[in-house]
Design brief:
The complex is a heterodimer. By secondary structure, chain A is mainly alpha-helical. In chain A, 72% of the residues lie in helices and 1% in strands. Chain A has a two-stranded antiparallel ribbon. Chain B has 2 domains: 158 residues, D-Maltodextrin-Binding Protein, domain 2; 202 residues, 3-Layer(aba) Sandwich (D-Maltodextrin-Binding Protein, domain 2). In chain B, the strands form 3 sheets. A 6-stranded mixed sheet of chain B has the order 2-1-3-10-4-11, with helices on both faces. In chain B, strand 1, helix 2 and strand 2 form a beta-alpha-beta unit. Classes of the chains: A mainly alpha, B alpha/beta.
């Protein structure tokens, strides 16, 4: 950001002094370098490896596979389509339910409804927990022999199947994930709402706008940058989902997600570059929101 | 617009900075390499990894390692790691700076990594142990491809049918005589009539139910067909394989409804709480019965899985063989080999048993006279089998067992009527694997 500001002040590069140039290169160069080494080099290597057969040990064993890994995934792997479906449902649920709920909560808290401080802390609480910890908590509650099943007087033998039941597990997992996501979105939105000039709302109210009209016509447009960030975060959170489900199942096959399949094919005894192909598929699915995200943040910096 | 100009100029600065940085990194890599070369000097300290086992595991390791130090004067630095993490990251650990020797598993898991050059060849060590090791164990520890052993065999345990004698008596059957398929079905039926689970199974982890598939397939089609199937020499779509799944489907109505929700510990708890008639599992959980109470332990019994096809009888069992491997990239390979040999030798075994190890050792030197009746029965179950399988995820390649067969069995349990579709998919996924 500092570098961006420097550029702005000195429109032409020729007017930069030597010292400025050095500072500028250091500030921009070091993070870029780290970014390239830690992110883009592995990304390019992954893309190349996704077109090979390799078990991850000896370099001389790498063999060219063409598009075979992708073909296997698209043609032969039932888990891929289940994962795509699960990630899709996750995304739809977050976009249509969890995120709007978070926004609604933020709006209500900001309006100062009765007991707003109480709601704020309640919904904020899960945000401080990592999804892995949330997975441990809810697994402990819902698994056979767990706390909730015990309360209902069900022992392991007749415990209700929750994690293993395909009709229920999706919604329970989404509920648990939303438990945290709603608070996260609420927090983000709330910080945005605090910066909206209250005079705007008052003026609209005096002109006779309803609550809904104020929200639609005043708040939403004013919050445009925050809205985009929230949309992108919702997209990325849904696509990169991993830890919660991994902690609950310890294996990617009952509730497959794209990230779990990347992990499954890279870890353990069966390392194969199908994992790389899964990673590339995931990268392609994520890159659109990420680019949008970067463009918005850059625009902000330049303003 | 100025915005565009800005971003352009910024980009070129970024590029310049990036190129400069790359040079620096290349220099760093060079010096790191020479540093690791300098560190590759043999010392008199050897490093040992205990794979799980908690306090007992540490106690056993300390006893054996101390005896080794006393004998050879080589200092042992030991650590315990989480078993699952160690397995999942095995290839990476072995390529990094691994401990010299560690407990590991025979079958595909040692052969594969041995052939890739990550585990040391232990031919000389296994030859020196020949007088105490049975031929079957040496054969089991030797890779069928390279004909070299990458593991020194130490212990094994049976995957067999476990039940509680008191519960079998309660339903009016003789607990000493669960031999035939009919006995087995009767046991499950009568237990289920009492409102309990007939045959408990877990498959949450994806591997637990492989044991049931292994034993059914080897009972119905024989050992050779099973091993052929796992190595692509027989087809998953074959009528013979389908026959196995027919028997598997017969078991499902006797199972708990939450197979996909529980793992092996859930199965154990069902038997511990007297909620299930029978289950097929590795006998390692018996210590937990002992920990609960001696009465629970005395009530536990184990028999070979019943005969289905008289042609094969009960000639095959899953008995995963464990042992000690040596990392080829260890800092002190020579000392690692010596330590591994000590662990697998009669001397080392005696130390481990003295420190409270209840495992069954393959070594002929292993004294079983002080065994209790359950452990004697475990030995009898092992001895009654002619063919030893190592369990599906050690008999089949790693990129097939876990990622393909595991989820296929889970889907089958979810919807047994889909069996043809599932088996076709397994075969297609096998066919798509890269072959050497």
């Amino acid at each position: 950001m500092k570098a961006a500001a420097t550029i702005k002040k000195n429109r032409s590069r020729r007017s930069l002094s030597k010292g400025d140039r050095f500072t500028l290169s250091a500030f921009v160069g070091i993070p870029t370098l780290l970014q390239i080494i830690l992110l883009w080099v592995p990304a390019v290597v992954t893309i190349v490896l996704s077109f090979t057969y390799w078990n991850g040990v000896r370099l001389e064993d790498i063999r060219w596979a063409g598009i075979q890994n992708y073909k296997t995934i698209f043609v032969n792997e039932p888990l891929f389509y289940q994962a795509l479906k699960n990630n899709g449902i996750w995304l739809a649920f977050f976009v249509l339910v969890a995120t709007p709920l978070g926004i609604l909560l933020a709006y209500q808290v900001d309006r100062g409804i009765k007991g707003h401080a109480f709601y704020e802390s309640i919904y904020y609480l899960p945000v401080v927990l990592s999804l892995a910890v949330i997975g441990i908590i809810w697994n402990f509650m819902l698994q056979p022999g767990g706390f909730v099943q015990g309360l209902m007087g069900l022992d392991i033998g007749n415990a209700i199947s929750i994690w293993g039941n395909p009709d229920i597990n999706t919604w329970v997992i989404l509920g648990v994930a939303s438990w945290r996501h709603i608070g996260y979105i609420m927090l983000l939105y709330l910080s945005g709402l605090k910066s909206v000039d209250p005079a705007l709302k008052e003026a609209a109210a005096i002109d006779g706008a309803t609550e809904w009209q104020i929200f639609r016509k005043i708040i939403l447009p004013t919050m445009q940058p925050v809205n985009i960030i929230i949309v992108v975060i919702t997209l990325i959170e849904s696509l990169r989902a991993f830890d919660l489900v991994y902690i609950i199942y310890g294996n990617p096959t009952i509730f497959p997600l794209l990230n779990l399949l990347v992990f499954q094919n890279f870890a353990g005894q069966g390392i194969s570059m199908k994992g790389a192909a899964y990673a590339v598929i995931l990268l392609v699915l994520c890159i659109v929101p990420i680019i949008t995200y970067l463009r918005v943040t850059f625009k902000e910096d330049l303003k | 617009m100025s915005e565009k100009e800005n971003s352009l100029s910024r980009r070129s600065v970024l590029k310049g900075a990036a190129v400069g940085g790359l040079g620096l990194v290349a220099g760093g890599a060079l010096s790191a390499e020479s540093a690791s070369a300098a560190a590759r000097i043999k010392g008199t300290t050897v490093r040992w990894t205990t794979r799980g086992g908690g306090a007992t595991g540490d106690k056993i390791a300390k006893a054996v390692n101390d005896a080794f130090t006393k004998k050879t004067g080589v200092k042992v630095v030991a650590q315990q790691v989480n078993s699952d993490d160690f397995q999942n990251n095995f290839a990476q650990i072995m390529q990094g700076s691994p401990d010299d020797a560690f407990g590991w598993m025979a079958g595909y898991r040692s052969n594969h990594f041995g052939e890739l050059g990550l585990l040391a060849d232990l031919t000389r060590e296994i030859n020196r142990l020949k007088s105490s090791l049975p031929t079957s164990a040496i054969k089991g520890a030797t890779s069928p491809v390279s004909k070299k052993p990458y593991i020194l065999p130490t212990t094994y345990y049976p995957w067999a049918l476990h039940y509680r004698k008191s519960m079998v008596k309660d339903i009016g059957m003789n607990p000493e005589k669960i031999d035939t398929w009919d006995d087995f079905v009767k046991l499950m039926t009568l237990t289920q009539k009492k409102g309990l689970v007939g045959y408990s199974l877990g498959a949450k982890g994806g591997w637990e139910a492989m044991g049931t598939f292994d034993i059914l397939n080897s009972r119905i089609n024989g050992y050779k067909y099973h091993i052929d199937l796992l190595n692509g020499r027989a087809k998953w779509t074959d009528a013979k394989t389908k026959e196995t799944f027919k028997y598997f489907a017969q078991l499902i109505p006797f199972m708990n409804d939450n197979v996909l929700d529980i793992s092996w510990d859930g199965m154990r708890d069902l038997l511990l709480q007297k909620k299930t008639g029978a289950m097929l599992m590795g006998s390692w959980f018996a210590n937990d019965f002992k920990a609960k109470s001696q009465a629970d332990y005395d009530d536990l019994w184990v028999v070979p899985f019943p005969e289905i096809n008289p042609k094969w009888g009960r000639d095959t069992i899953d008995a995963p063989l464990d042992g000690i491997s040596v990392a080829a990239n260890g800092k002190n390979v020579a000392a690692g080999k010596a330590l591994a040999e000590f662990w697998a030798s009669p001397e080392g075994i005696a130390e481990a048993v003295k420190a409270g190890d209840t495992s069954i050792y393959v070594s002929k030197s292993f004294d079983t006279s002080s065994y209790d009746s359950f452990n004697k029965q475990k030995l009898a179950v092992l001895a009654s089998a002619k063919n030893i399988m190592f369990f599906l995820d050690r008999d089949a390649r790693g990129d097939f067992a876990g990622p393909v067969v595991g989820p296929a069995i889970q889907s089958f349990i979810k919807k047994p009527s889909d069996v043809n579709k599932i088996l076709e998919s397994v075969q297609a996924q096998w066919d798509a694997l890269p072959k050497n």
